[in-house]
From TrEMBL:
Pfam families: YjdM (PF03831), Zn_Ribbon_YjdM (PF08274). Belongs to the YjdM family. Signal peptide: none annotated. It comes from Pseudodesulfovibrio indicus. Residues 4-32 form the Protein YjdM N-terminal domain. This is Alkylphosphonate utilization protein. InterPro entries: YjdM, YjdM_C, YjdM_N. Residues 42-110 form the Protein YjdM C-terminal domain.
Length: 111
């Protein structure tokens, strides 16, 4: 069986070959085999982040609808790195006292 890569855009595993291109049925992304590259996520200090890491917020972050900001030094456990839909927020996590949030790698450091 042919070794078909997951979609580089949405990580779908149901990609199929359409002649010279691979096509993702979930997001309709078309790509060639050489286009698949692992994105490297780095924190504010340039340290590489991976899924499941614990990070520390490096600055106070205002949150719409919340009574107060996420304070500098807040520890966030078990992060999940995502392909940003809005082009900015690339960490999905749960912050104690706030719930599910999206963060930028530029405001956290590995901790």
């Amino acid at each position: 069986m042919e070794n078909i890569p997951n979609c580089p855009k949405c990580n779908c595993e149901y990609v199929y070959s359409d002649g010279t291109l691979f096509v993702c049925p979930e997001c309709s992304h078309e790509f060639q085999d050489g286009d698949v590259q692992e994105k490297v996520y780095k924190d504010v200090n340039g340290t590489v982040l991976v899924d499941g890491d614990t990070v520390v917020v490096t600055q106070d972050l205002k949150v719409k609808g919340a009574s107060g900001p996420i304070k500098k030094g807040t520890k966030v456990k078990n992060i999940r790195l995502i392909e940003p839909e809005d082009g900015v927020h690339d960490i999905s996590c749960k912050i104690p006292g706030f719930g599910a949030m999206l963060l930028k790698t530029s405001v956290v450091k590995k901790g």
